[in-house]
Design goal:
The protein is α+β, with helices and mostly antiparallel strands. Strand 15 and strand 16 form a beta hairpin. Helix 8 runs antiparallel to helix 9, helix 15 packs parallel to helix 17 and helix 20 crosses helix 22. The strands form eight sheets. Strands 10, 11, 12, 13 and 14 form a five-stranded antiparallel beta sheet that branches. The protein has a five-stranded antiparallel beta sheet with strand order 15-16-17-18-19, with no helix packed on it. 36% of the residues lie in helices and 23% in strands. One of its GO terms (biological process) is lysosome localization.
């Protein structure tokens, strides 16, 4: 249920020290470049970078009549400018804080506020070690400062490409104690890097490229994890790319960090970032020039939240972003958008009467948003729903949102379908029915409150709903479980997730999700795969699977590599093959053979719709094997097994050549003897290949008796001699008649084969041999019965038109008469 929001004024600046000055400054149109409130909400810092008059300055305004000295600092260009106003935690006093005013050349002033005394300068420190260093971006992480500084080269005529990598990212602890301010040791996080804007979340630091001058470096973001001393490379167009632990300062080099990912990064799309900000949940909010708002999580994954209205955003068009609990507030061109971060649903859209607004901290009130305007400070708060004390479950809202996307893709109308239209229209009954069923199930209401048709549907869906509820319960157990039990819970959760995805449509989104699951939980995903496919060995040691045809179709018939693109996502068959290689490599050939058996049953051999109509399965498995970082003898054996398990003629011949290259002659003969029985054509190719090897060396001599048995029936002695002569090794000089080397081909070695071929009956003779040797050929002439006709009958009988052929004795009697 949508919550209604109300906007009310909470301050007209009368409760601020020098509030009239702040109001006059805002009303004159001198909009501040940066507004920031202190952690306790009692101080308002305004940074104004406009050119003189007046001078650039930073002013602190106290709230609720707090007395004491004011804080105001200004500077005269071309003096170093102010680059950051940062509130840091004071570890000595719980809840206390200090203000760090950081200037461009590294000069930092540390201030604190004392009640009834006012602002006091504690100490001045220098962040940078070099006199020529210049800070371009700075942020605070706990009690530490993190900044990106420029270190210009000493040679002014240096190459421009080298000058672009003249920045480094540094960090230093700034501790405030009773003895004053102590500055910790300088630590370099990344050096020889391009310019970055640093943005800190509670536990991570995001590094966003500041310029797009170099194509490769403007395609990805970096995330620094201080506790793990790790840098993560991620890109909005590809997700997580690479992660590296920085064990030494040499590994902090920017170019070495990218060394293993240059090929992948070069194929990515350039970054499209208009505005960026850190959310209170620790993610990075990114607004593209098209108005799309996305959330980049600290693990490198990204999800879409919302699309702003108004078309493409110009570079100078400001977008204000701020998160309050689960609510994302965006201000664009005087319009306030309030969006639910969890599901991307627009809660409210409100047109403001003022163009320039700034978000302030809301002092722990998650349902209240404070805005600074020219006329005062306003609070936007939410009221509870009128018709229900409980909002609709997130899952019910997701049903309508997914239905909107589904029907919108299939609609011929240009009008946009919304959740409200879907609920009120009454045209689409499927999402309404499903939402009603879910509400009853999630709230555990009795089924008698549903319509009859819904009750029938509820009984059909009961198992699915139970599975969903158990999955949600398991997620809760994972969050609340101790460390010793987390692994077992995660394995069960991954198994349920993999099983759920295999039961749904295997589209690109589900495939990308499975890729992330296999990457994050490889062992649990492997166990889930074995369970879903029901893989096990029988008594003979052969791999068997009892998966349903629907599961096999998901494994083999999902999006292929050409459909998912080059963003690191691989098809499900390749994912499973990679798991076999990692956890049970001996089972991989058997798995490929099982998949081929299923393919032969489900698709015709030449069908282009089936997986074999694109790239053969054994080649896809070989592609997974080729992507391994290290290649050893076990991989050669695996390649042989994959080639042979396919039983394809080309693959068998390729395996035979690989065995010949490895000089495994015993296995060469065994493979030849086994696979020659598959087809006469393959038999001829195998025998010709081995005959050519026999002509070149003497390694096959111990196996000649077996080899000659493989000789095809259609080969003649001329064919055999032609193959032998064609593959004889080239000799540098004419050999002696009786050579003692013993490695040359002699007629004696070839004689048994030639005799066998010569003595073998001709093929045409064999065709008729059965008939010629039959005892009933030709069949005996049946006996004839000779009847003597009477004389009267002979006289009356007509003369035959043709005289019958008579025997010689009869003709002789006639001549005598």
């Amino acid at each position: 249920m949508k919550r209604a929001g109300t906007l009310r004024q909470v301050s007209d600046f009368s409760d601020f020290s020098r509030g009239h000055w702040l109001q006059e400054l805002l009303c004159r149109g001198e909009e501040p470049s940066h507004v920031q409130s202190s952690p306790d909400g009692q101080h308002l810092l305004v940074l104004q970078k406009s050119r003189p008059p007046p001078l650039p300055r930073v002013v602190a305004f106290q709230r609720h009549g707090i007395g004491g000295a004011d804080l105001e600092r200004n500077w005269q260009p071309p003096q170093p400018a102010l680059v950051g106003l940062l509130f840091l935690q004071n570890p000595v006093t719980l809840g206390a804080w200090v203000l760090a005013v950081v200037w461009e050349h590294g000069h930092t002033e540390v201030w604190h506020f004392v009640v009834a005394v006012g602002w006091q300068l504690l100490q001045t420190v220098e962040l940078c070690q070099g006199a020529r260093a210049r800070i371009v971006s700075v942020c605070s992480l706990g009690a530490s400062l993190v900044w990106c500084e420029e270190r210009p080269p000493l040679d002014t005529h240096s190459d421009m490409s080298k000058c672009a990598f003249r920045f480094c990212v540094c960090t230093r602890a700034l501790e405030v104690g009773e003895q004053g301010v102590h500055l910790g040791t300088l630590r370099i996080v990344l050096h020889n890097s391009p310019e970055y804007q640093v943005l800190a979340s509670p536990q991570h630091v995001f590094l966003v490229p500041a310029t797009a001058s170099f194509a490769t470096t403007s395609k990805f973001l970096l995330i620094w994890h201080p506790e793990k001393a790790k840098l993560t490379i991620t890109a909005p167009s590809a997700g997580f790319v690479h992660s590296k632990v920085l064990r030494s300062s040499s590994e902090s080099d920017f170019r070495k960090l990218l060394l293993g990912s240059v090929g992948l990064l070069s194929g990515l799309a350039p970054l499209d970032i208009h505005t960026s900000a850190v959310s209170n949940s620790g993610g990075l909010l990114l607004v593209s020039t098209k108005g799309a708002v996305n959330m980049m999580e600290p693990d490198g994954t990204q999800r879409h939240i919302f699309d702003l209205e108004g078309g493409p955003l110009a570079q100078g068009r400001p977008v204000q972003l701020k998160t309050f609990g689960s609510i994302l507030a965006c201000v664009l061109a005087g319009v306030l958008y309030l969006v639910n971060q969890n599901n991307g649903r627009l809660i409210e859209k409100k047109i403001l009467s003022m163009k320039e607004v700034h978000f302030l901290e809301s002092l722990g009130e998650e349902d209240s948003i404070q805005l600074l305007t020219q006329t005062g400070i306003y609070s936007f708060s939410f009221s509870k729903p009128e018709d229900s004390s409980r909002p609709e479950p997130c899952l019910v809202e997701m049903v309508f949102e997914e239905a909107c996307r589904y029907y919108q893709r299939r609609s011929l109308s240009s009008s946009k379908l919304t959740v409200e239209k879907l609920k009120k229209g009454g045209v689409f009954q499927a999402p309404v029915a499903l939402a009603a069923i879910l509400q009853h199930s999630l709230h555990q209401k009795p089924a008698r409150g549903l319509q009859d048709t819904y009750v029938k549907l509820l009984s059909t869906m009961s198992l699915e709903l139970q599975s969903y509820m158990s999955l949600e319960l398991l997620k809760t157990c994972v969050v609340c479980a101790p460390e010793s039990e987390v692994e077992s819970y995660c394995e069960e959760l991954v198994e349920q997730e993999v099983s759920r995805v295999l039961r749904s449509d295997m589209d690109k989104d589900n495939l990308a999700y499975l890729n992330s699951v296999f990457a994050s939980f490889p062992k649990a995903a492997w166990k889930a795969t074995r369970s879903c496919l029901q893989l096990q060995q029988n008594g003979d040691g052969l791999l068997v699977a009892r998966a349903t045809p629907e599961v096999w179709k998901k494994v083999l018939g999902g999006p292929q590599q050409e459909e998912v693109g080059q963003n690191g996502v691989v098809p499900l068959f390749e994912l499973i093959c990679a798991s076999f290689l990692r956890f049970k490599p001996k089972w991989l050939p058997g798995f490929v053979e099982l998949t081929q058996q299923y393919v032969s049953i489900s698709w015709s051999y030449s069908s282009k719709e089936g997986p074999e109509g694109r790239v053969p399965l054994y080649k896809r498995a070989l592609g997974v094997l080729a992507r391994k970082n290290k290649h050893g003898e076990a991989d050669d054996e695996m390649e042989l097994e994959l080639l042979l398990c396919s039983k394809r003629p080309k693959a068998v011949l390729q395996a035979l050549h690989l065995l010949i290259r490895l000089k495994q002659w015993q296995r060469v003969v065994e493979v030849a003897e086994k696979f020659s029985k598959l087809s006469p054509l393959l038999n001829k190719e195998i025998f010709t290949t081995l005959l050519a090897e026999f002509a070149q060396h003497r390694e096959l001599d111990p196996y000649l008796d077996t080899l000659w048995l493989l000789c095809p029936a259609e080969l003649t002695t001329s064919d055999i001699l032609a193959v032998v002569l064609q593959h004889l090794p080239d000799s540098q000089e004419d050999p002696a008649p009786f050579s003692s080397e013993g490695n040359q081909l002699t007629v004696g070695l070839l004689k048994p084969l030639l005799q066998r071929v010569v003595q073998r009956p001709c093929i045409q003779d064999e065709m008729y041999s059965d008939a010629l040797q039959s005892p009933t050929f030709p069949p005996p002439t049946p006996p004839r019965e000779h009847k003597v006709p009477s004389k009267a009958a002979a006289d009356d009988a007509p003369e035959p038109p043709m005289a019958r052929t008579s025997s010689p004795s009869t003709l002789a009697q006639d001549d005598t008469a």
